[in-house]
Input
Amino acid sequence: MSTLLRLDGVGKRFANGTQALDGIDLAVAPGEFVSLVGPSGCGKSTLLRLVSGLDNPSTGTIAWDGGEPGQSDIGFVFQDATLLPWATLFDNVYLPLKLGGVSRAAARPRIEEALVLVGLADAAKLLPREASGGMRMRVSIARALVTRPKILLLDEPFAALDEITRFKLNDDLLRLWRDQNWTVLFVTHSVFESVYLSTRVVVMSPGPGRITADAPIRFMDPRNADLRTSSDFATLCREVSAHLARAMAA
Output
């Protein structure tokens, strides 16, 4: 199997002496959906920042197939939608292209395409305060995908949403992942969400974060409401929960 991204012996120590990550070895193949689960403070978000290039590892290496990715090759969706409150949803999606020097006229087709993909084609003129929490998160996803990234990094994007909205956005994210042929790294505290979404679930220990388990998730499509209530789903959730419990105990 080819590898898009490889981390070898990656560690991160902050200036205050805190060791956030230690000895992370992880290989991600093109098209995988990999979820990172672990307790608060285990370094999941730090790991995403290292992969994105927003920060640098203290030890180890991060290697990409074909060389370092360009800025537009990586999309990052944060837990907070972080929208510009004075800008329309259209202009919030335009932001990364604007920063990249793309004119508004040239960017319009890509912005409109991104809004269609997340189901907000009719909401482009709204301001963030006029949109629901779920809509704002969709805009954040659209802003990440408007650059047509090769890999999408998501840091607990649905944590603050109600369960019904979260389930709907889980399904939308799976649809986009399949349709756009993304590679995804997804951080969550929810075992159930990780099992539902992923092709693999990577379990991390309390800080300094280390990988203690790498569990393949073997489901056939479609992943839908019936899967959530199936015995196979419950079994895999128990397995991942057991991995997490062992990581916490260690």
The mean pLDDT is 91. Residues 33 and 184 are 5 Å apart (CA to CA). The chain has two domains: 1-69+152-250, 81-149. The longest strand covers residues 19-28.
